[in-house]
């Protein structure tokens, strides 16, 4: 595009020159061209100098002119380098002072290159046109130079997850156009800078919507001057630092706030009483500090989805605060060890979106009553170690209820399932596979549409989702749908996405391994990958509202399958992709491992699966199967020739798929989960029920299942390969029976 413009421009110049001088020939034209381009050699030389010692640069980076010869990841305007986007390609090297010569540079995205090291050169401040500086998930170190304050056009500054040390430069307060400020997950120390008449500070950032400072070692008090009524902040994240003192009441002045996290600091004193002025707030997370006195009245916070006040030093509440029953939007209430006393009203459980309530280690007493109108979204009620004396819950309840160490459980309730010391469910199942995966060559992955490809992979990290992990499935389904619709609309060659098991890490962040599959080809080319990476790193893609601020930590993507690659490169690329796939699998496995281990053990010990479904408190109902039948392990063993390799028709992270023949001659495909991919019996039951209910021309019909001898297998109608690929498109089902979005199948 730019090249074309340059060529046209030169052509016009040539024509013009020809018109003016009758004796002009082609040679003059060429000379003129060289002359016109001369100043740009400086800029080009700068890019060459900057990247001279870098490793793993794109193959296309040859020739003298980055603009003329179409270097991938570089765009130009008037032969000057305007953008450099080289995310997640395993670049190695350092940023040198040569950077400053790229004086027209507007966008620099080098995110997710863990091989980029060294400190930021202080003359970075000379990039006066820079709007976007994205250097997250690299390995930069040293302090953040004060000169970043000179980047007056800067809109987006993201240094998340490097090894920066030293203070937050006060000069950042000079960035009057800044919209996104993310310095989290570094080793920054010192206090939060605010202006004082002579020196600038963060309070001057009146256009900034995002303050992301979590996971550093910031200390000292939160200056009251940090928050002003003319600010437009929506996300204020100071979690996982070392802040002391109290939360200033000025926080209540920033009415635009949607997410507030000050958890995991050493904050103390009473909470400001005007927090409820934050009527747009969705997430208020103040847990794991040392706040005292009473929890303030939060009446009016009608948009509050997630409230976490756990592990503080509040005074005994002397009854349940009345405002507790007024926050209609709550999905997640975490009030562990908050000195709550009194009887929880049944009304509290009737908030329509309520999913998770954790109020362990309090003094809730009297009768625990759910009434008839409790939220159908309920997933977990953890009231471990309270003073509850009686319980009224209808027989068909479907959520996990934990009441161990309550007087009720020491007495008459002792043998009830919810009185046993259950583990909190650890991660959420997302099972985005509907089709029988095809066998893929060792380094490819079967996409949700069962095409083998090299996906762009990484972890989607949510720092303040408004939903809870356990109620997450429907939200994850929404995210998948949103990604699959939005990315192609942004002209990206994306076919489908796979979101595997989400889990919460110990910083309170929700982690979701994500794989994005290419359309058209089985891999992304470099340009496609850079564009995709930038759409995620620049936050051009906005997820549905409940996801809050996200960050995408990408794995290196090196499979470009270009024809230019020598066989040697091919080998290296293959190995690299193998590694990143292995990493993806390990990530998923880590999310699963703990929980699955327990489940496998459980599954192995059970004779009758339905009994175990009973003891899980699912309600004791056997799966409502529509036309699907139960197979014993032996039956399937026989019909697959003892699961012989010859009968294997595909495999994936979950296990293998076998072809088999039933006694009546029907050909079937058996999906056999391997250890480590077994689901809980409740999930397995849900899956079977769903699959047996769904009949659609684009879906493979479920013939039956086997849940026997610790095995979980799904038996499908067999469809010959070609048809299989073609028919099995789409994997979200909007059920006619009002189930909403549901995952079907069992992947990773
Ligand atoms: C403002 O802060 C700067 C840097 O922290 C300090 O050097 C200066 O003395 C302060 N000025 C006033 C008036 O407090
Ligand atoms: C946090 O502050 C305390 C004292 O206030 C100090 O002992 C501790 O080392 C600090 N932790 C970190 C990680 O800086
Ligand atoms: C909180 O809001 C109320 C009513 O909207 C207002 O009267 C009060 O001044 C506000 N408080 C603060 C500290 O902004
Ligand atoms: C409360 O503290 C305990 C013990 O430190 C910890 O295990 C638990 O996860 C904390 N709860 C929350 C909700 O942060
Ligand atoms: C429950 O706790 C409240 C508040 O501490 C107290 O007033 C009430 O008497 C207790 N109820 C029972 C049944 O113990
Ligand atoms: C049980 O809860 C009380 C607060 O009601 C707390 O003091 C105690 O430490 C908790 N017990 C355990 C074992 O966590
Ligand atoms: C790279 O992929 C993009 C997007 O699919 C496509 O438009 C472009 O033509 C491809 N480039 C090459 C060199 O194949
Ligand atoms: C970067 O993202 C912002 C929104 O976060 C968007 O307005 C802007 O256009 C994006 N930049 C580019 C170059 O796409
Ligand atoms: C990244 O590059 C280094 C060498 O620069 C190489 O050893 C490593 O295997 C590469 N990793 C990937 C995932 O390509």
TrEMBL record:
The keyword rRNA-binding does not apply. Residues 1-22 form the signal peptide. It is found in: Membrane. Keywords: ATP-binding, Glycoprotein, Leucine-rich repeat, Membrane, Nucleotide-binding, Repeat, Signal, Transmembrane, Transmembrane helix. GO terms for molecular function: ATP binding; protein kinase activity. Residues 643-748 form the Protein kinase domain. ATP binds at residue 671. It comes from the Eukaryota. The chain crosses the membrane at residues 571-594. PROSITE patterns: PROTEIN_KINASE_ATP, PROTEIN_KINASE_DOM. Its main location: membrane. One of its GO terms (cellular component) is membrane. The keyword Glycoprotein applies. It holds the Pfam family PK_Tyr_Ser-Thr. This is Protein kinase domain-containing protein.
């Amino acid at each position: 595009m730019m090249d074309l413009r340059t060529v046209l421009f030169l052509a016009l110049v040539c024509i013009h020159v020809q018109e003016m001088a009758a004796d002009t020939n082609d040679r003059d034209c060429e000379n003129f061209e060289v002359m016109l381009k001369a100043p740009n050699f400086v800029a080009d030389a700068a890019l060459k100098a900057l990247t001279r010692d870098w490793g793993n640069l794109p193959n296309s980076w040859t020739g003298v002119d980055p603009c003329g010869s179409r270097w991938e990841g570089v765009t130009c305007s008037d032969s000057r380098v305007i953008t450099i986007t080289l995310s997640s390609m395993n670049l190695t090297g350092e940023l040198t002072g040569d950077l400053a010569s790229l004086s027209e540079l507007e966008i620099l995205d080098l995110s997710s290159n863990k091989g980029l090291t060294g400190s930021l050169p202080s003359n970075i401040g000379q990039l006066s046109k820079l709007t976007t500086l994205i250097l997250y998930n690299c390995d930069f170190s040293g302090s953040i130079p004060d000169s970043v304050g000179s980047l007056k056009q800067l809109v987006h500054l993201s240094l998340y997850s490097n090894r920066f040390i030293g203070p937050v430069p006060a000069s950042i307060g000079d960035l009057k156009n800044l919209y996104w400020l993310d310095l989290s997950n570094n080793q920054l120390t010192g206090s939060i800078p605010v202006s004082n008449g002579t020196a600038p500070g963060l309070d001057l950032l009146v256009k900034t919507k995002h303050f992301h400072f979590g996971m550093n070692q910031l200390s000292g008090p939160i200056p009251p001057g940090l928050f002003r009524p003319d600010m437009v902040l929506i996300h204020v994240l100071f979690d996982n630092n070392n802040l002391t003192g109290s939360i200033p009441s000025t926080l209540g002045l920033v009415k635009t706030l949607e997410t507030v996290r000050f958890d995991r600091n050493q904050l103390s004193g009473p909470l400001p009483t005007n927090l409820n002025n934050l009527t747009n707030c969705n997430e208020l997370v103040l847990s794991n500090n040392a706040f005292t006195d009473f929890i303030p009245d939060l009446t009016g916070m009608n948009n509050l989805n997630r409230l976490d006040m756990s592990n503080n030093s509040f005074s005994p509440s002397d009854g349940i605060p009345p405002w507790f029953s007024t926050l209609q939007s709550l999905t997640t209430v975490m009030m562990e060890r908050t000195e709550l006393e009194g009887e929880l009203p049944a009304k509290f459980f009737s908030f329509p979106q309520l999913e998770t309530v954790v109020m362990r280690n309090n003094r809730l007493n009297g009768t625990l009553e759910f009434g008839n109108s409790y939220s159908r979204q309920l997933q977990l009620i953890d009231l471990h170690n309270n003073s509850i004396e009686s319980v009224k819950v209808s027989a068909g309840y479907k959520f996990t209820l934990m009441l161990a160490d309550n007087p009720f459980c020491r007495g008459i309730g002792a043998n009830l399932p919810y009185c046993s010391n259950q583990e909190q469910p650890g991660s959420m199942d997302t099972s985005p596979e509907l089709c029988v995966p095809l066998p893929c060559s060792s380094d490819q992955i079967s996409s949700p549409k069962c095409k083998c490809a090299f996906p762009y992979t990484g972890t989607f990290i949510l720092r303040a989702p408004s939903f809870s992990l356990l109620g997450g499935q429907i939200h994850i389904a929404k995210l998948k749908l949103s990604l699959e619709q939005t990315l192609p609309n942004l002209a990206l060659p994306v076919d489908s996405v796979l979101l595997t098991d989400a889990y919460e890490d110990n910083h309170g962040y929700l982690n979701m391994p994500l794989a994005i599959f290419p359309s058209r080809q089985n891999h992304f080319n470099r340009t496609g990958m850079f564009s995709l990476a930038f759409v995620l790193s620049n936050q051009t893609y906005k997820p549905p509202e409940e996801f809050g601020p996200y960050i995408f930590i990408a794995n290196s993507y090196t499979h470009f399958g270009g024809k230019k690659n020598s066989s040697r490169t091919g080998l290296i690329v293959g190995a690299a992709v193998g590694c990143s796939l292995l990493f993806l699998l390990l990530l998923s496995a880590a999310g699963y491992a703990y929980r699955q281990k327990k489940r496998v053990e459980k599954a192995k010990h059970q004779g009758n699966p339905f009994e175990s479904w009973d003891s899980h408190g699912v309600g004791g109902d056997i799966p409502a199967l529509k036309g699907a039948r139960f197979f014993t392990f032996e039956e399937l063993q026989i019909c697959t020739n003892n699961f012989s390799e010859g009968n294997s028709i595909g495999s994936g992270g979950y296990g293998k798929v076998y072809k088999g023949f039933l006694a009546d001659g029907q050909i079937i495909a058996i999906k056999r989960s391997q250890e480590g991919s077994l689901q809980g019996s409740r999930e397995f039951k849900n899956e079977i029920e769903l699959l047996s209910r769904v009949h659609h021309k684009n879906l493979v019909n479920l013939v039956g299942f086997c849940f026997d001898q610790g095995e979980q297998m799904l038996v499908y109608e067999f469809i010959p390969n070609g048809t299989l690929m073609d028919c099995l498109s789409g994997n979200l089902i909007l059920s006619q029976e009002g189930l909403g979005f549901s995952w079907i199948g069992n992947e990773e």
